[in-house]
Structure formats: C-alpha cells, structure tokens
Design goal:
The protein has 55 residues and is mainly α. It has one helix and no strands. The longest helix is centred in the middle third of the chain and has 33 residues.
C-alpha cells in the first residue's frame, strides 16, 4: 500500500530538452504549412465560383 498515486516523471537532460523543443518547433511548422496548403488548394478549387453563389 505504499504505492504513489502518480507515476514519477523522468528528468530530462538539457540536451534532451533542447532536442524535444526543436522537434516540437519543426512539427508546428510542418502542421502550419499543411494548413496553409489545404487553404490554398481549397481556394484554388473554388476559384471564381465563390462569388457566384446565391445569398
């Protein structure tokens, strides 16, 4: 019954923290570029027909 309620968290070395931060930044940039790419493709597929819809 001397179990801890939460598991202990491993402490990361400064080098590991730096690698984790750079991976997170790279992933954020890739996801942001993907969102922009989807937006551009959507606008390109809609073309000029966006303004021809009934209001």
């Amino acid at each position: 019954m001397n179990e801890q309620p939460y598991p202990t968290v491993a402490k990361l070395s400064p080098e590991a923290l730096q690698r984790q931060k750079s991976r997170s930044k790279a992933l954020g940039i890739v996801l942001g570029c993907l969102v922009i790419l989807f937006f551009i493709v959507t606008i390109a597929k809609l073309g000029g027909n966006v303004y021809n819809r009934a209001m």
